[in-house]
Write a structure and sequence with these properties.
Elements: H1 9-17, H2 28-36, H3 40-48, H4 77-88, H5 90-100, H6 128-133, H7 135-144
């Protein structure tokens, strides 16, 4: 990268649009929000940059995941589980995706507009358990490389 990252995801997109750097890492929903929002300056920035999903050797792009759990000592486990089941339902996933410009967690729920325009990427199939087990190794490599 041309410089250490500064600010948040929108700032990274703006830096690429301003020519400060050629590549930035960002969550796709920020780009979609900027490209389809009411702010004309944000929309203009997204006309200068392209959202891409890098795929090393055709193995697919990394995707962030969201998850939920219930603590072992939770005082109201039954209702906590019901809440997680509610969030995982097709109706909730459709609502959350539509209102956050994110991809639904359920493969049975289609990506809503305008997210669907960017839904043709290939996701890396590595399980969360597999990359979680290697997180300390990855962190060590990033630290050795000076990543902050």
């Amino acid at each position: 990268m041309a410089r250490p990252p500064e600010g948040g995801d929108r700032d990274q997109i703006c830096a690429v649009g301003a020519g400060v750097c050629e590549v930035a890492l960002t969550n796709s929903y920020y780009y979609v929000r900027m490209a389809t929002g009411e702010d004309a300056a944000d929309r203009a920035i997204t006309q200068k940059v392209k959202l891409g999903f890098p795929s090393l050797d055709g193995k697919g792009a990394h995707i962030n995941i969201s998850g939920g759990g219930v603590a072992a000592n939770a005082p109201n486990k039954a209702n906590a589980l019901k809440l997680l089941e509610f969030f995982a339902s097709a109706d909730s996933q459709a609502h959350i995706s539509k209102n956050n410009n994110e991809y639904p967690a359920s493969p049975d729920v289609p990506a809503p507009p305008p997210v669907d325009a960017y839904a043709t990427f290939t996701a890396n199939p590595m399980s969360v358990a597999a990359f979680a087990a290697r997180q300390p190794e990855a962190q060590s490599m990033m630290s050795a490389a000076g990543w902050r």
